Amino acid sequence: MPPTRAGAPADRYINRELSWLDFNSRVLELAEDDSLPLLERVKFLAIFAGNLDEFYMVRIAGLKRRQSTGLTVRSPDGLTIREQLALVTERTRDLVHRHADVFTKDISPRLEEAGIRIVHWGELADDEAKRLREYFRDQVFPVLTPLAVDPAHPFPYISGLSLNLAVQVRDPDTGAPRFARLKVPNNVPRFVSVGAGGTVDPASGATFLPLEDLIAAHLQQLFPGLDVIGHHLFRVTRNADLEVEEDRDEDLLQALERELARRRFGPAVRLEVAEPMDPAILDVLVSELEVGRSDVVHVPGLLDLAALWELYGLDRPELKDEPFVPATHPRLSEGETPKSVFATLREGDVLVHHPYHSFATSVQRFIEQAAADPDVLAIKQTLYRTSGDSPIVNALIDAAHAGKQVVVLVEIKARFDEEANISWARSLERAGCHVVYGLVGLKTHCKTALVVRREHGVIRRYCHIGTGNYNPKTARLYEDLGILTADPRVGADLTDLFNTLTGYSRQTTYRRFMVAPHGIRPGLVEKIRREARHAREGRPAGIRIKVNSLVDEELIDALYEASSAGVPVELLIRGICSLRPGVPGLSENVRARSIVGRFLEHSRAMWFANGGEGEWWLGSADLMHRNLDRRVEVLLRVCDDTAARQLQDVFDAAMADGVRCWELGSDGAWTRSGECDYQAALMAAAVDHAG
């Protein structure tokens, strides 16, 4: 915990774990919003559940790991680990029950009215039950493996996030009770169609039976000769945060592959059980899984509502948002004819705003044109996450086959994408690309691409610096910003950065970049303090920050100082905000809001009034310890006047009165307000500009 600044209140930070739960609560509010299309509400239920799973796998697992060391570590807001875990447990239980209530009491009845039903075995008609018995016999029964638990059979390993049945059986001859575990297979649809032939007819509706219900109805077939006396559904969450022991003398790829093999055996951090649960069975699970009673979450209704993505996939367009087709940036086409990205960038920078601007006809086309252009000599790119069938990776492979020098830094430590990234890295290597696996001790999180082209005997460099991954699928769902530029200063900076990433350069100063882990925090602190000086001396001052998370205490304290000096500070924070706005004498000039909607607000951008000579920065870094200290991140100074005005317009629209958002109060509570859909307005504007 940083030292308390003289006169600053000790409670000036909001706990980051509780702030994250507040964010997930905002997601849940969208599931509760009956003004949204029904299947969009189902989608937000699934997102909430998936978010909470990852929160336990990473954040709560990390707290428990630190607790196990016995160190008395306090969070910046002064809480011990035990106190944080207690508060998280209490808040999570409330959210889980609210989540279940929304589904069972509100959304399920509305789904049924729309012809989409989730039923239990006892509700099936005879012909439906007959068809599902055949389905069970042919598709499910062969993959089930009941595992006995007795002196000869130790308690089996329970994989993380799997659904399981704890089954109670009895020997009819001796009356002796027995216990068995049965895993619900994850390679069979969770919701089994009750329709004839297993088909779903969107016009006539859809009826589904949860897979665990189907299995439970046929338990006697799995335990012939025994009496089945009960079953209970449970689910375990395990620590999935990798701790790669990086050694400069060891191959990083091998170290990561070893750790990936260990991850599936991480300690349990949460036990979810369906209500009601037999106390004796719960005692067995708690003991064998080595979890505390406080780690047990009793869930009313269905477990694992992340599976609701299956229902969202139904072909029912009338129950979803209107489809949106991203527009091609107007500077990248002439009517229906695509323009050369290189020719366009020689005329000036292009700011792309996804998903409103098409990723496929901007960033992806930039890489594809570079791969096919005979005048391009080299392509250098960072890849943090990409899609399964990645056109970006395919273009890089084509470039290598065409004899171009292709250098790709694949961040194989990207959480939960490690195995996919290892696979892509090897494909790139086989194609002849130079592949670098990241730096020891750091994740390379920046989103950068450099194209080197020979034009009339002169070398020119073209660049892309963005806030989002090179992933065409998420580019349709995540809101991100990027600059395409031929600015030679940016090209020189990016060349220097790649030399640092691939060689032994220790460069820390750049022309148009701030680069973590050395440059972003001190650079931002200096700019924030510069605004305070401008305000005190009567010059124009102001700060605007848009990020996913604001946690770093040094930056928060600098913003408090700026506010106290009279600097107006506007924060647009999607997720965690540890700064407490609106506190008299500390942050009365700070305003913080969050927008959560159809698209995931993901871009990071910052503006400083700078005495009337305003400057915009954009890049990959959230204002968190991990980004500023343990990652390679890039912030780019936006020097193109048109791009800077466009960034100003985006921020003006987000902070306008009446926008549907959540405002953060000095008490740490988020309050929803406004009716104007900011994202819908941007969609309409993108279509108008394209037309």
TrEMBL record:
Keywords: ATP-binding, Kinase, Magnesium, Metal-binding, Nucleotide-binding, Phosphoprotein, Transferase
Positions of the Polyphosphate kinase C-terminal domain: 340-506, 514-675
GO cellular component terms listed in the entry, alphabetical order: polyphosphate kinase complex
Obligatory cofactor(s): Mg(2+)
Binding site for Mg(2+): R385, R415
Domain of life: Bacteria
Active site, UniProt feature: H445 (phosphohistidine intermediate)
Gene3D superfamilies: Endonuclease Chain A, Polyphosphate kinase middle domain, Polyphosphate kinase N-terminal domain
Summary of the function given for this chain in its UniProt record: Catalyzes the reversible transfer of the terminal phosphate of ATP to form a long-chain polyphosphate (polyP).
Family according to the record: Belongs to the polyphosphate kinase 1 (PPK1) family.
HAMAP family to which the protein is assigned, alphabetical: Polyphosphate_kinase
Protein name: Polyphosphate kinase
